[in-house]
Amino acid sequence: MKKVLLASACLFALAAPASAADLAARPYTKAPVAVASVYNWTGFYLGIVGGGAWENGSGDPKMNGGFVGGTAGYNWQTGNVVFGVEADGSWADVSASATGATVVPGFGVVTATASSKTDAMGTVRGRIGYAVNQVLFYGTGGYAWIDNKITLSALGLTASDSKWHSGWTVGAGVEAFFAPQWSVKGEYLYRSLGGETYFSGALPTGTLNFHTVQVGVNYHFGGPVVAKY
User: Fold this and answer.
1) What are 158-186's pLDDT values in tens digits?
2) What keyword terms does UniProt attach to this protein (predicted)?
3) What beta strand segments (E) does 17-63 contain?
4) What percent of the chain lies above the pLDDT cut of 70?
5) CA of 223: how far to CAs of 70, 84, 145, 183, 204, in Å?
6) 148, 166 in Cβ contact below 8 A?
C-alpha cells in the first residue's frame, strides 16, 4: 500500500504542472477608445437677441437706446468654414429730442420740441466664419431697416409722421456652444439707413447711421454634436 501511495503522489506531482500549462490563457481586452465631441454648425436655429444702439453723427442730440427681439438662421459647414444666412427683428426705443425757439408765421417766436424715435429695427444678412470646434468667429453683412417716427410739438399742438428707412449693415461677431444645442453670441453691427422725407415733403432727413452692440442666445435644431473616435 505504501508503494501505491508513493507512486500516486509522484504521478500527481508530475501531472500538476502539465495541467496548469494546459489552462487557457486569459483573454486580452483592448481598452475602449475615448470619444471626442466635435461640433457641426450645419442646421437651422432660432433665438433671442438684444442690445444697445447709438447714432453716429456730428450733431447733437444723438439718438440712443436699446432693443430686444428674435432671430432665425441657417448654417452650412464645410471643413472649418461656416456659411450662413440670418434675419432678425426687434422692438426698439432709440430716440432723441430737442427743444428750442422757432418762428411760426402769425405767432412770432415760439418754443417747439422735435423728437425722433426708432421703435423697430432689423436686418437680413449673410454670414461667413471659421469654426474652432464649438467656437465660431464670423463676419456679416446685408440689408438693414428701421421704422422711425418724428414728432413736432408747438403751441399745444402735436404732429407725428412715421417712415421706413432702408439701408445696409456690416459687422462681426463670435458665437460659442455652451450646451449640446445651445449657443451664445456677441455681435457688433454698423447700420446705415437712407434718408426719408416727413410731413408730405416738408421735412427731409439725411442718412441715419447707427452703431449697435448685441448679444443673443440660439437654440440649434437637429443636434450639432457629432461623436468622433
Assistant:
1) 999 999 999 999 999 999 999 989 999 99
2) Cell outer membrane, Membrane, Signal
3) 36-39, 43-55
4) 77
5) 21, 17, 32, 12, 50
6) no
DSSP-derived secondary structure letter, 223: -
* C-alpha grid cell, residue 160: 407725428
pLDDT grade for 130, boundaries at 50, 70 and 90: very high
Q: With 0.85 as the threshold, say if the pTM is over it.
A: no
Helix H, strand E, coil C: the string for 133-200 is: CCEEEEEEEEEEEEEEEEEEEECCEEEEEEEEEEEEEEEEEEEEEEECCEEEEEEEEEEEECCCEECC
Backbone Cα Rg of the chain:
36
Report the distance separating Cα 47 and Cα 108, nearest Å: 54
In angstroms, the CA 5 to CA 12 distance is: 11
Using CB atoms within 10 Å of the CB of residue 176, give its burial: 0 to 12 exposed, 13 to 18 middle, 19+ buried. Answer: middle
